[in-house]
Amino acid sequence: MRVGLHSGAPSRGDAPDPFGRPDRGVSTLLDLASALARTDSVEDVALAVRDVVREALGACFVSLSMIDGPWLLTPALGQLDDDTEQRCLRLPLDLDTPAHRVARTGRALSFDDLASLVAMFPRAREELQRSGLRSGVILPMTISGGFRTGSVTVAWDRDRRLGEEEVALVTAVVDATAQAARRAQLYRERRDVAHTLQAAMLPELPVLEGLAVASRYLPWSTTDEQVGGDWYDAISQPDGGVLLVVGDVAGHDTEAAARMGRVRSMFRALAVDRGEEAPAALVTRLDHVLEALGDATLATLIVARLDPPGPGRRLRWTTAGHPPPVLVDATGRSTVLAAEPDLPLGVAPERSRHDHGIDWPAGATLVLYTDGLVERRGRDVGDGITVLRAALERTHTEALETLLGELVTEHVANSEDDCAVLAVRDVSRAVVRPRGSVDPGVSAGRATRR
Hints:
- β1 and β2 form a beta hairpin.
- α1 packs antiparallel against α2 (about 40-55), α7 (about 165-200) packs parallel to α8 (about 255-275) and α8 (about 255-275) crosses α9.
- The strands form 3 sheets. The protein has a 6-stranded antiparallel sheet, with helices on both faces. Strands 7-16-15-12-13-17 form a 6-stranded mixed sheet. The protein has a 6-stranded antiparallel sheet with strand order 8-9-10-11-14-18.
- By secondary structure, the protein is of the alpha+beta class.
- It folds into 2 domains: about 25-195, GAF domain (Beta-Lactamase, 2-Layer Sandwich); about 205-450, Phosphatase 2c, domain 1 (4-Layer Sandwich).
- The chain has helices spanning about 25-35, 40-55, 80-90, 100-105, 115-120, 125-130, 165-200, 255-275, 280-290, 380-395, 400-415; strands spanning about 60-70, 70-75, 90, 110, 135-145, 145-155, 210-220, 230-235, 240-250, 300-305, 315-320, 325-330, 335-340, 355-360, 365-370, 420-425, 445, 450.
């Protein structure tokens, strides 16, 4: 492995004694604490430590190496040539390099000149000579319980012996760095688990004869976990119809995602158990199951059943405290399928629920969504639905994936809530979709209630 200093790395051979002022050590640790407080990744931690230590101690090289299972990860910090830094990003932990040995054994290592370092690692003589590093110290990173997490290397391009105060300062720096790096590592692991959980819960949409189906899910969170309680699903029916659902469990975290997963799984099981069941009856059973299992999940939900292609095709739906769907016909005229919503799940399972229905227009597009798509701070939900209708009318000739992409663009910039969108379009036969002026004030359609 070739090691060489990046041409832009400064030489600190003439750097003044960092302890010319008695308070320099305290000042350095305060600077480090301030820098580490702004980090949320191991890479950020490594950059913070590099900048503070190079400034305080006149070092020309500072690196952080983190144990990750059988690997040692060393973020690229622009101090070595690019090829070397890329090769060092992820190396087996059992390699015998200075950083690897210290990380693996937990025993510190220091060298006052190049000859002493070569004597400790004779097989790496050529690499060490090419590195340009002549003195330094490598300290293990350990956290409570003596758990080893990696190592920190501080080196100079001149022969140098560290004084007692410098050793104490570097030790304090590494102790603080170990805690920050481990916190960042755990944060990344938690985020990765959350993302995996969320991805596992998003369904693979079925291929349906005569229907195009598309979806979007955009989580929102005050953290970087990016998980939440919104979901969608599309379940093909034995008779050729399709059951569509969009739901919203309260919350924006892994707990909300877990509760959403339970509700979604129960719904799927019930839907498959009685494929012919009307939406209202299906949601009623779901509510009773949640109550019987002691699950206090509060959720809104819309379930729609679209009949298979043929004469008298109908769309039936039920709403459990959820925003109304929007239907766009082949000419681009939108209709809000407004109907009195029933109560959300988890409120009063004994209350009756109702189905609503309309004749399905050939070539129509149906859009189901959660309130994150239309709700904004300072804006009424009704105004948000009006904006949604205008967007659907403007883009109704676009491919379904493109249409949804345009719908969620505004959401990404302005929302403070999760957003799930599910859309289906009738493509069972060629339909003329003319562009042109469409009255944005088309009144909401009337739905029959059964």
